[in-house]
Amino acid sequence: MEYKKALHKAAVLCSQQERCVSDIRKKLVNWELSVEECDEAIDYLISEKYLDDGRYSQFFVRDKFRFNGWGRTKIKYQLKQKDISSFIIEDALEEINEKEYLEKLAELLQVKMRQLRNKDPWKAKASMVRFAQSRGYESHLIFTCIERLLASSD
Q: Does residue 124 have a pLDDT over 90?
């Protein structure tokens, strides 16, 4: 694909939905642009505000937390997979309200607790811990929340 056509196509993609630099770079490489052309296109898209990893990270954090119920650990891992700098990731993660974060964790664990068929408290607790960790929540928060849930259900 010729450079101008690829640049236009990339700009259209970026204007439809937030994207990160690594996603657009992969597309440009797939469209068989040279490394120099890719770099030039990325620089242009950034200078014209089509691409912004910080803005992308903020949207990603907000969406994955609110709609998917992901915790900070999973969100951070996914953003690192997209070659976003740790500084930008940490800045974006600060967008999460701590109170909402703990409420979301409690809500997820309550749903999981109702689904558990095993009444053995140790196995139930272990299952809830694994579930919350798979969602990317921090262990110390998980244990605290589970203890509260179990204490209130007695």
A: no
Taking 80 as the threshold, does the pLDDT of residue 118 lie above it? no
Q: Provide the mean pLDDT of the chain.
A: 93
Distance set, CA 105 to CA 16, 31, 132 (Å): 32, 42, 8
Confidence of residue 154 (pLDDT cuts 50, 70, 90): low
CB 149 within 8 A of CB 132: no
> Domain coordinates of the chain in residue numbers?
3-47, 53-93, 98-153
How distant, in Å, are the alpha carbons of 1, 20, 59, 110 from that of 93? 37, 16, 10, 24
Integer Cα distance of 1 and 109 in angstroms? 50
CB 130 within 8 A of CB 64: no
